Every structure is written in C-alpha cells, then in structure tokens.
Amino acid sequence: MKKSTKYITGLAAAAALFSVVLAGCGNKSAQNGTESASLGSLKLAYDNKDKAIKDGTLNIAMVQDTPFQGIFASELSNDLTDSYLQSPTGTGLFNTTNSFKIVDGGAANLKLDKASKTATITIRKGLTWSDGKAVTAKDLEFPYEITANPAYQSQRYTDSLANIKGLADYHSGKAKTISGITFPDGENGNSIKIQFDHMTPGMWQSGSGYYLESIEPYHYLKDVKPGDLAASKQVRQAPLAFGPYKVSKVVAGQSVTYVPNPFWKGPQPKLKRITSTVVSTATAATALKSKKYDVAYQMPSTAFPTVKGLKDYVQTGDQSLSFSYVAFNLGHYDTKASENVQDRKTPLQDKALRQAMGYAMNVDQVNKKFNNGLATRANSTIVPVFKEANDPSVKGYPLDIKKADSILDKAGYKWDSKHEYRTTPEGKPFKLVYLARSGNANAEAVAQNYIQQWKQIGVHVALYHDRLTDFNSWGQIMTGGNNNDWDFTSGAWSVSSDPSQMDLYSKGAPYNFGHFTTPKLTSLLNAVDAPAAIDPKVRQKAFYAYQEYMQDQAAVIPTSFSLDWVPVNSRVVGWSNANDTGLNYWAGIGVSADSTK
C-alpha cells in the first residue's frame, strides 16, 4: 500500500503522526528459533496470482490500546491511525514515483514554475465527491483556510506554509483572503495558482510542506463553525470521499466500515465492504491466528515471531519513514505569535546534561530484547530512507556511561553526599519528570529501564504523575504547547517524504514539542530549503551541517529507526507497500476467497 504519510505530511514536512515509541512484549525468538525481521525478510508487495472474487469483504486490524480519534480531515488530524482510516476514501492529491517525486495521474497534477515562483494545481477530470458534487478549485483552496485560520484550531500552520504570499497576513487576521492563492478559472473551476516568496528544492517532491496536498469539500463544510469542525458529524461520522470507497458507518473510536463510492469514476472497486477495527496490542497476534483479520497495521514488534509462523499470512513491509526520539521541554509555544520560545527555567537548558542523558540510554539493548529486528538505533532525525540526506558520520548517542559521566563531571554536576544523585553546578538537587507513554505490555519496563540508566549517571528521573500516560492524553499535552509539568518525553514521528526538518524544528513549528530554537538552527533549516539548495550537492551539505549541530546541541535525542511491518492474509489480492501506487490503489484491492484463510 502507498505510504500514508503523503497526505498527512503534505502540509507539514514532518507530519504529526504519533506512532508507538517502543513496541513489544518479550522476545521469544531465541527460544523458538524464529528469525528476527529484516528489510530482506519483508515483501514490498504480495503478488497473489489468484483472481479476486466478486463482492468480497476485507477486514483490517488497527492495532492500538486506545480508541482512535477518527478525524477525517487531515488539516485537523495529528494521528497516524487517522491516516490509515482515511486512505480508502482518497488521501493525497498527487501520484508519486517510488522515490516520492510528484508525477501526473493523481487526484490532481502539479506544475511548478521557477521563474514566476508559482505552483499550479489542476484537478483530475471527473473527480467527484461521494455526494455527487464535482470537486472544485475552492476545494483545493479551502484546506489553506482551515490550516491558517486560528479559529479552526489546526496544529499544521508552519513557517513553510508562510512562504505562500498573503498566508501570514490571513493567519494573523490582517487579511480576510489569501492573496497568494488565485483561481485561474474561478472558484468553481478546476485549478488554483499559488504564489510563493521563494522556491525550495523539496517542492518537486511530495511532502515538502510548502503547499498542501489535501482537498476538502467546501460546499459540505462551509457552514460548520470553525471551532466545531474537528468534532462535527461532517468529519467524524459522515465524511465525504473522493476515492474508491466512502464511509458508511463509524463506531466512534472503535471501527469504520466502507462501501464503494457510487460517484467514483476510476477503476471499479473489487470489494463490497471494508471494515477497520481497533484491536489491542495484547490480542493482535491471537486475532490473526484466529483468522479474524486480513491486514494488520501497527502490529507490536514482539508479535513478529508468532505471526511469522502463521502459514496463511505474508509478512510485507518496507523501510519506515518514522523515527522515535526523546525531546526536552525547554520552553513554550506562543499561540498569538505562532512561534516557539525557549524560556523555561530548567537544568535541561544545559546541553551537557542533555548529551549525558543521551549517552546513558541503552537503546541497542532495548531494541535487541523487544523489537525482533524491526527497530535499530537512530543516528539522526533524518531517516535512512533519505540516503543523500542522512549523514553517516553523525553517530547519534550510543551507550557510553563513562562518556556521560565525564560530560557531567566537566560541566560541574557533582554527586551529593550519599553519592546517589548529582546536583546542578550551583549545588542544587534536581529531579526531572519523564512523560512516558503507555501503549503496550513492555512500555513500563522500557521506561523503568531508562530511569535506571539515568540513575547510573546521577540524574534523578521520575515518571509524570508516577505512571505512564495514555496516547490520547500525551497528544493533548504535546499539542497544547504550554504544559510545564514535564521535563522530557519520548515519542515518534512518521515523517513526510521530503527530508526537510523545517516543520519539525523551526521556530514557528507547532510540532517542535521541545521548543528548542536558536538563530543558528533557523539559519541551518533555511539553508536546507533555500533556492540555492535546489542543487543536490548544496542541499546535502546543508543537511549535514544541520545534523552536526543537532548532534552537538542534543535538543532531541534520536533513539530508533524502524521497519514498517504489515502482515497480510494470503487471500488478499493487489497488496503493495510501494510509494507509487496512486489514487486508484484501493480500487485494485480484493480477496480471492469468501473468508480469511
């Protein structure tokens, strides 16, 4: 299946996709002889030679331990699960190559003009909403209003989007319309033209974050009050679709049922029904063993030995666009100014303390014990999918207790009289609050493991409210941007298909959860996306400089890269994890038997 990050991250170079931090419940591969996962052991696509039957049904497991948010509007959603739920109904605007370059043939085509600094987006002929209304140019423009108008409470307005002329004035209330977006053939036409302040090298790739890659039905949503849209029936219970399937039923937080979109003008869908259902991490493997589901998203990694042994399931996957990290709470997000402010009074303002905490983490050991080859220690916040951008000379933070101790010693952190914990260089005791997430059977063990690792170097750490925090509460705390009850957290991003880090760590990025911002970082991020960086060599040099700086500052400790793993039942026809599958993809999915094998 085409990676879902495209349409989610189309408006942010790092989509706010909250994925599991470290999944698993005990590695038994050594006992049962089942090999660990590797990129070579996962099939990019499952080529089922059997013919799809007529009117089949497909059952999908959404593996997680909390109810899904279920927001069918990408401008208002931050959740990876929501992206999976949206995908059968139509997601991103553009088709791409497997290396994420935008090509013609999607829901819309893109034409960029370097000389005039413009993008023209033209809707595919015959594209229609599931209520029979034609998709219009206004539907292309409306996502920008949702994103930039603070009344909608979107988390996705960024410095990148502010490169569109007039969008910053619209966002601040100085203008009632977006001057840089025009309609060549009117609002009911089929195209919009976007005027930029400058062109950037990622614009030819999906996921650059400098323009949106979504559409919303203006005629259907325009009368909903902006502050009510995220909770409205129109985006929660009865969303419109422009893809092969439409939503027919939603059980809030638990399941979504889809049926063919009667106004879809592409290839005829092969299924009469698709159902996506939340399944807990603890029962996911048993559910597959019982043949309850054909496909499983977000499986816990320690289920791999069990599921790999199921003869009627094919293990598919690819390199992931996700990475996990530790972020330090150094400030707050100023909603009025739409920028991060690094002003929090905390010992963590000292990069030496942050560095030492990174070197104290035994990430390799955790991955070996719990993740069955589906996660490896990360060296950077740029995932290895982007070979030209990830700097191999940057090593991240491998376990090195002696180095961590040395860093703290040199920075003046002295042990207390009991030699239990260190004090600040000013001689004051301190304790840091760790906002760690729940989500699987091993989350507590992993969090306590790291707390003990930090204790080894004399850093006193306690869990937020003395317990793990559920995913939904964690998300609310993070997107609030002004909670001072925690000092650092662990999380994960599923990033966009352009490696720019602008919308993760810029001064104006709502997703800069640690609020680390410096003039130097701003300069380095700008260099990555500058017009000069359209030259690949210039951009690579800029990426390398950015990673060296982030390594030194330890504003974020990258912890793990991962593999996407999707078990697929052998009756499924047409399944692929490739990036070039396009808008027609779900129409080609079928099943070759009446029931799961």
UniProtKB/TrEMBL annotation:
It comes from Periweissella fabaria. Keywords: Signal, Transport. This is Solute-binding protein family 5 domain-containing protein. Residues 1-23 form the signal peptide. The keyword Transport applies. PROSITE patterns: PROKAR_LIPOPROTEIN. InterPro entries: Peptide/Ni-bd (IPR030678), SBP_5 (IPR039424), SBP_5_dom (IPR000914). It comes from the Bacteria. Residues 108-507 form the Solute-binding protein family domain. Belongs to the bacterial solute-binding protein 5 family.
